[in-house]
Write a structure and sequence with these properties.
By secondary structure, the chain is an alpha+beta fold. It is about 20% helix and about 35% strand. The protein has two helices and nine strands. The protein has helices at about 1-15, 85-100; strands at about 25-35, 35, 45, 50-55, 60-65, 80, 100-105, 110-115, 120-125. Strands 1, 2, 3, 4, 5, 6, 7, 8 and 9 form a nine-stranded antiparallel sheet that branches. The longest helix has 14 residues, at about 1-15. The termini are far apart.
């Protein structure tokens, strides 16, 4: 009987999503970068099975996570090509997102960080 339980647990373990999205799907709004309030609106949506998408200040984007949790590495992002007055804020958002290497999800807060001490703090939308 024990071998059946072990087999069932092993099968369940192979089915889990080990990406960040397996630990906190939903929409997260960016509140700050490196301790400074982010003045524009940017949303990161964590979908199923490692899919990410969102809204930068001017453009929509989508892609996939390339590393298991707690590491954070996005693959190439597909980004629309619209211009707007907040292009500088958008550049800061995407440049910062590309530099993030670690993720932590806890109680509705998503923190992306890297070894250099950079940090992006998102809050889950209700």
């Amino acid at each position: 009987m024990a071998w059946k339980q072990i087999t069932a647990l092993a099968l369940l373990a192979t089915c889990t999503d080990e990406s960040l999205t397996g630990y906190g799907t939903g929409r997260y709004v960016l509140h700050e970068i490196d301790g400074t309030a982010y003045s524009a609106k940017a949303v990161l949506e964590l979908g199923e099975d490692g899919a990410i998408s969102g809204e930068a200040p001017c453009n929509l984007f989508s892609g996939a996570l390339q590393s298991p949790y707690p590491w954070f590495q996005v693959g190439p992002l597909a980004v629309t090509r619209r211009a707007c007055p907040q292009m500088r804020e958008e550049q800061v958002f995407f440049a910062s997102l590309e530099e993030m290497t670690l993720a932590e999800v806890s109680e509705g807060v998503l923190i992306l960080s890297n070894e250099a001490g950079r940090e992006m703090v998102f809050h889950r939308e209700p």
